[in-house]
Amino acid sequence: MVQQCHRVLILASVGTIIIYLALPFRFASHYPYINGDRIEDSLIAQVTANVSLQQSFDCIYKDIIENNRFVYDNPLYHEGILRGEEIRPGGEYQPEQCRAKYSTAIIVPYRQREKQLHAFLTYMHNYLRQQLIHYRIFLVEQSDQKPFNRATLFNIGAKIAAEYGFPCLVLHDVDLFPLNSGQMYACLEKPRHMCSALDHWRFNLPYRGLFGGVVAINTFQFQLINGMSNLYHGWGGEDDDLYERLRAMGISICRLAPEYSEYTMLKHKPEHPNENRRALLRAATLRQQTDGLNSLVYKEVERRMHSLFTHIMVET
Amino acid sequence: MDYFEAASKTKEIQDQLCCCQYIGSDRKPYHILGCCCNCQDFDLVCTRLVTCQKIERKNLNGMLIAFQDRLRLPWVGGAKRISPAALAPGLMIPLMMGLAALNGKTALILMLTVMGFTVWGLQLAERTATRTNFFLSWIVFSVFYMILVFECEVPLLELLPEENYALIILSAAAIYCLYRTKKLSALNLVTAQYGTTPKDELPGIAEASSGEEQAEAQTTLQMESLLNDVDEDDDDNVVVMDLDGPPERSGLLHGQPNICEICRKVTPRRAYHCPICGSCVKRRSHHSFWLNCCIGERNYRWYIWGLLFSELALLLGSNLTLTSICHPFLVFRMLGVPILLPDDCSEVFEDFELGISFVVAAYAMLISCYVAFLLFRQIYVTWLGSTLHEYKRAPPTSRNRIWSNWRAIISK
Lengths: 316, 412
Hints:
The structure holds 2 protein chains of 2 kinds.
Chain A: H1 2-21, H2 39-42, H3 62-66, H4 76-79, E1 92-93, E2 103-110, H5 114-129, E3 134-142, H6 150-163, E4 168-172, E5 176-178, E6 192-193, E7 197-198, E8 214-218, H7 219-224, H8 238-248, E9 262-265, H9 277-282, E10 299-305, E11 310-315
Parallel strand pairs in A: 2-3, 2-4, 3-11, 7-9
Antiparallel strand pairs in A: 1-3, 4-8, 5-9, 6-8, 10-11
Chain B: H1 2-16, E1 21-23, E2 29-31, H2 40-50, H3 57-70, E3 72-73, E4 80-81, H4 84-100, H5 104-128, H6 134-152, H7 161-184, H8 205-228, H9 247-253, E5 258-260, E6 265-267, E7 271-274, E8 279-282, E9 286-288, E10 293-295, H10 300-325, E11 327-334, E12 337-344, H11 352-383, H12 388-393, H13 396-411
């Protein structure tokens, strides 16, 4: 009798431990995604006013999406800019052989990452032109010595991109690179988390609320949620804040299939985390109407049209 | 009939003990809480120490034996004795892992030290025919620490639930198979049913008690297996207790008789004496120091399956760990699960948590290489239609004969 009680106790303990070890919330999440055959139908065809109408037919994007392939290991994409004369001053490109259906402003927050920036511009210009979209790269540099405020730089870039008439914004980190050619840099009906398969996280998504790195969002939606919070100085929290804002407005996000969403991250030193990010995140929705695009305070030091990007230097 | 009665009596006594009680060396029941009471040798040694008298070696040995006898762990059916050899790995492994996680050089030095120490220890145990729990305890603590580091230090948010389930299933299967291997090892021993010489002619008390203890454990396990019908799959292999009839007749019925000069028993064919177990083992393959038991007829398949599942679990665990803490690259995708390999581990020693994870993963890969060697050796020997014991004892001409057979086939 006593022996059976001991045996039951041992079995219960072992079972409890195994159940705890197997709990799924401790691991990466599977997420719903848009398959390759539905991507083109999901994209919103919108261009800026200055896109030329001289071409006689629209660009075909079906082949680009269907022939998705791994291009990151192609050395031609990294060595130098191919056919640099196609890129206009300010880092703008528009295909000549056909009429682009999508216009995208790629906004890159930046400070003191020269090596990453050089690699980024070389690769992205070679990468994006094969997608036959109209795009422009906006580099928003924080030129003061305060803690890096990534969200404010996005707000500034979004405001300036809206002045240029871009309907679609891609909020892009300078150290993230798409691996596959089919990842279209265009907007869908919903905001899109583009780097949901990042090599830093074993190409898995740690949690479904992750919304950082590379995000594609309509300019209208970005203005609707009042942009991003300006209070996150230092590393961390502003991406989750953006996700909370979208949820508060009833806007859900979407992701493409993992084979389209694979990104790699260049190595760099970790930033200092923002100690206040958890407290700020708890009150995210309360501040939404007062903290964002409508409370954006900055001083534009300089705006320069480089050959590969539009350089905007600001003091926050 | 004596064995049956002795087993029944032992079982009755064990049922009466609670988990904190045990039977001491003088055959009386004791309680763990009384471990500091009534130690005459200890009192005597202390008295002589205080009064500056000479301490008798007999008293010193008695004191040490009493200490070891009273170091016990509460267990079902009575407290179990803990030997120092079983506790040592519990301290050595975390110390070595912690030192190895400091930087790459200490990691390399300590891995080589572990390999050298293991080889030396195995050779020493084999040379002196020592039956020790040290290696079994090493396995138990290694598994425990690997699981602990995996659950506490590896960033689990980067792993998929499917990968975790696969690792749990493989680990549980490996542990269960090895546990069954050890449990069934007692059934391999050749018992009195094949006949034995009179007891008064046995060479020594220790050897006799060892043999009797093995026979007693085997009888108990056989009765349990028959009563509980645990071995349904092995119905054909169930050994029927045939205590009646003359010994010669039993030997003839079971096949060609052999005589073990050490046990002074008639043994069945392909049964060999194990000097460490102190008994003859049916279809003996080898004595596994890691499991502290012989691998033979009844537990050979469990052993092979245990090695296979261990290999898979170790490889999967180290792959998941390394691709989490290092930079991975994608080999391919299978059913939505990315299959990765690590390609850049140059930064793992900048953080102690990453370092300890890397060291444990490297340790798991080291063990998996050894397990792979054991597995391939067993598969090769089985493919030859032999056992490891027979293969090692085969004369060189016999091995050349195998090669000549192959050459004859090729030439024809």
